Amino acid sequence: MSHTNKITGLVDRFGRTHNYLRISLTERCNLRCFYCMPAEGIPIREKSEFMTVEETLSIAKTFVDLGINKIRLTGGEPLIKKGFNELIEGLGKLPVELAMTTNGVALDKYIDVLKNAKLNKLNISLDSLNEERMNAISRRSFFTKIMENIDLAINQGFEVKINVVLIRDVNNDEIIDFIEWGNDKPISLRFIEFMPFDGNQWDERKKVDLEEILSTVYKHYGVAQVIRIDDEKNDTSKNYRIAGAKGSFGIISSVSNPFCDSCNRIRLTADGKLKNCLFSASESDLLSQLRNGQDIKEVIVSNILNKKKERGGYSDFNDNMLHTMKNRTMTAIGG
């Protein structure tokens, strides 16, 4: 028997245990947010290049055998994956905590399916509270539907986080508007730094960092009204609450203030490639191994063991670095 069958945790050379798997179900999306996907979309590939529902479940079970106890479904947009109902039903039988990141457009159609699978944690992307601006960012016109489905998820008892990608001169003037909106709801807002990926015209000057966000918040509310909340273990965000508010807000600064030391995450792309870091250029092809009848546990263990200390081996992000950086578009990695 292979020694990897006895492994109960995926640990890298830096002592980080990985128990959290993010599975991208599809590269396709019903939005075209410019920071994630090129306006023309991405090249359509053969269906055979992507994991089937059965293959996704098989690989997920292998990860659970190796100690994964949390799985988040991402995309593209996971809810447009063909066979989603069957997939979520299968994942719901595994001994894991299930979560999903979605743009919310089709959420109302799947509320009961998600509940039955005990998936009660949703991250919903929303980059503006202004309809015209949100539609411009997403290059589609689903603002009203998204807002309705956010309220629906809250009313149905889901634990809701709202993901806001902050970009200078695009939506950074809405920081206070978002916090005010979230103060009256039992949600967690998360302001996310604009990150560099293929095709998204990343520019360091467009980045809005933690210090700038906090400065804006302190100036509006006063330092005494902004309460620092204890972060959970392996939390990617620094979390805060305005005194008396129902909701909270967090700041995820992957570029200016990375959280690599406590990283416990692994990514599985829709075409069955294992990425041990969002920014990693190297991938391990689990799907081909699985289809060839090989044991993928060895590949998984080896991949995690070779994980770089931080940000896929890039010690610093800047405009010059982008010319040498090899990565996918965000939608092809999985949010």
Distance between the termini: 36 Å
Identify the strand order in the major beta sheet. 9-10-11-8-7-6-5-4-3-12-13-14
Q: What is the β-strand count? A: 14
Mean pLDDT score, rounded?
A: 87
Helix content: 25-40%
Q: Report low-confidence residues grouped into runs of 5 or more.
A: 1-5
What is the radius of gyration?
19 Å
Written description of the protein model:
With 335 residues, the protein is an alpha/beta fold. 26% of the residues lie in helices and 19% in strands. It has ten helices and 14 strands. The chain has helices at residues 53-65, 84-91, 111-116, 131-138, 143-155, 175-183, 210-221, 286-291, 297-305, 330-333, and strands at 10-11, 17-18, 20-24, 70-74, 97-102, 121-125, 159-166, 187-193, 226-229, 238-242, 248-252, 265-268, 273-275, 284-285. A twelve-stranded mixed beta sheet has the order 9-10-11-8-7-6-5-4-3-12-13-14. It has a two-stranded antiparallel ribbon with strand order 1-2. The protein is globular and about 60 Å long. Residues 1-5 have low confidence and may be disordered.
Keywords:
two-stranded antiparallel ribbon, alpha/beta, 12-stranded mixed beta sheet, disordered N terminus, TIM Barrel, 10 helices, 335 residues
How are the secondary structure elements laid out?
Blueprint: E1 10-11, E2 17-18, E3 20-24, H1 53-65, E4 70-74, H2 84-91, E5 97-102, H3 111-116, E6 121-125, H4 131-138, H5 143-155, E7 159-166, H6 175-183, E8 187-193, H7 210-221, E9 226-229, E10 238-242, E11 248-252, E12 265-268, E13 273-275, E14 284-285, H8 286-291, H9 297-305, H10 330-333
